[in-house]
Amino acid sequence: MLTRRSALLGAVLLVGAGTATAAQRTPPHGKGGHAPPADQQPTDSPAQTPLGPVDTVARWAFITDFNTGAELLNKNADEEMPPSSMTKLMTLYIVYSRLKEGRMKLDDQLLVSERAWRMGGSKMFVQIGTEVRVEDLLRGIEVDSGNDACIVLAEAISGSEEQFAELMNETAKKLGLTHSHFANSTGWPAENHYMSARDIATLAAAIIRTFPEYYHFASEKTFKYNNIEQQNRNPLVQRGTADGLKTGHTEAGGYGLVASTLRGNRRVILVLNGLETMRERAEEGERLMDWAFANFEDVTLFAAAQPVEQVPVWLGESRTVPLVPAADGGIVVTMPRNWRKTASVRVDYDAPVRAPVKRGQHLGTLTLAGQGVPNMQMPLVAGADVPRLGLPGRAMAVLAHFVGG
Fold first, then answer.
1. Among this protein's residues, is 122 annotated catalytic?
2. Class of the 2-15+303-404 domain?
3. Secondary structure E strands in 276-361
4. From the candidates 75, 84, 85, 219, which is the catalytic residue?
5. What is the value of pTM for the model shown?
6. CATH fold group of domain 38-297
7. Spans of all domains in the chain
8. Which of 130, 142, 269, 364 would give a disulfide with 217, using CB separation of 3.0 to 4.6 Å?
9. 21 CB-near residues (< 8 Å, 6+ apart)
């Protein structure tokens, strides 16, 4: 069989697809290790991006495109760090899972224990011995970053916060969070409690994708409970430049932020940590979010079922079969806006394909490459069935082949 290679788009550049190499995912502090405190982390190294190095005062930073998973910016994104209240995203994920499964309802009333009532740090100010609606507790976490609200939910779901932490770790494994381990539901400083910036972004994306019916809680700017009104601690939500998700602060981790926003049809997720002040967190978050939208765009190379090329078929009822993307949504990539003329797209396949051909049968590969950008390969499949010719038809086809040369 003859291998065919066909250049299709000479003016396209792909951003890396967001899947780290094994070297990128190696924990810098050893398996199960811990990030050093923020004041021991280097701050002068720039973040790495497809456009080259970009300076940021954050000690840890990660930006990803929600639609394609493309990695747009990475600074120590796989290091284990103190996540502070960004931990609460895992607590929210578990509660949202219970709600979606019907095992919990927004109107359920949960009892406030003494432990929850006494919990320090940020609070929604629940009262011992009272019952609080799940919906109010969710707002108490999303808006107030309430540690007390987290413990009420953790105890209701697992019986104790310690057992809930075990559930958090089980859930982390299912979500593929390879640099995360939880000791509590709140992010309160504790031994063996850490996350990476990439893991936080992965968790945020899972919440947005899986629980759109509950995601609106993250964008609420104020919440009043027990006659105490508090503002959302997320500065980008307050400014209207993001619709979620969470902030955090501890001495070891500094000021942190995980934010997401939708502009047009494109959503970006940003994670920062290790910043020195609230103002620095707000300004750096907004600056880098604007940078991500200004410098990159999502491009549909081929829509779902759109033929990439027609492949010759040998001894089939049809002489060709369409070659289409294997992915249901077609081929969508994130590209730097100004690099679109520096890359190439190539299609490799063996031709002719011997009949019969089944729809969905793997037939080829689409490869995107560009200067300074890792190659990316995507499978291409048959877009239709092509039955084999009957015996008389095959005989005529073979004869025609030899007579015609």
1. no
2. mainly beta
3. 296-302, 309-314, 320-325, 331-336, 343-351, 353-354
4. 85
5. 0.83
6. Beta-lactamase (3.40.710)
7. 2-15+303-404, 38-297
8. 142
9. none
